[in-house]
Design goal:
The protein is mainly α. The chain has a single domain, classed as Tetracycline Repressor, domain 2 (Orthogonal Bundle), CATH 1.10.357. About 75% of the residues lie in helices and about 0% in strands. It contains 7 helices and no strands. The longest helix has 28 residues. The radius of gyration is 18 Å and the shape is elongated. The model has no long low-confidence stretch (mean pLDDT about 90). This is TetR/AcrR family transcriptional regulator. Keywords: DNA-binding, Transcription, Transcription regulation. InterPro entries: Homeodomain-like_sf (IPR009057), HTH-type_TetR-like_transc_reg (IPR050109), HTH_TetR (IPR001647), Tet_transcr_reg_TetR-rel_C_sf (IPR036271), TetR_SbtR-like_C (IPR049445). It holds the Pfam family TetR_C_43.
């Protein structure tokens, strides 16, 4: 925590006043990143066709999941549950919004389920990145499967 305060250019007291534990700091970083990803949904939908918005949003989510995976080591056992409880509902809501926009545009099949889609994202962030990142190719297959028959 002292190294973090030093790198941030603040005193240790300031850091501990705002984040009394390492777990509190890690959770705040996680929440900030999650909020950024969730807030990008309306922007993407305004700028892109729904299926492209879904693709870009998913790649961003997968990249964030990969980066944040290592944060788990800094958390106690109850923190993982807290993260899951705080993030599941808003992430499902974001996916629902993206899929619904695709359904209205005729680009996504009517039976596409947000919970199923979220499960696929777990496979995407775990996809091998060496010698190349497989997630974009796997996501392309998933998005093709979402298209109406």
């Amino acid at each position: 925590m002292n190294q973090i305060a030093q790198r941030a250019g603040v005193g240790a007291g300031t850091l501990y006043r705002n984040f009394p534990t390492r777990e509190a700091l890690v959770l705040a970083v996680y929440r900030h990143e999650l909020d950024r990803i969730l807030d990008s949904v309306p922007v993407l939908l305004a700028q892109q066709p729904p299926i492209d918005a879904l693709r870009l949003w998913t790649l961003d989510l997968v990249a964030a999941m990969r980066q944040k995976h290592g944060l788990g080591d800094a958390l106690g056992p109850g923190a993982h549950q807290a993260i899951a409880e705080r993030s599941a509902e808003p992430v499902i809501a974001a996916i629902t919004r993206l899929l619904d926009a695709g359904k209205r545009a005729g680009a996504v099949r009517a039976d596409a389920d947000p919970g199923d889609y979220l499960q696929f994202t777990a496979a995407l962030w775990r996809a091998a990145t060496e010698p190349e990142d497989r997630a974009p190719r796997m996501l392309a297959l998933l998005l093709d499967g979402l298209r109406p028959h």
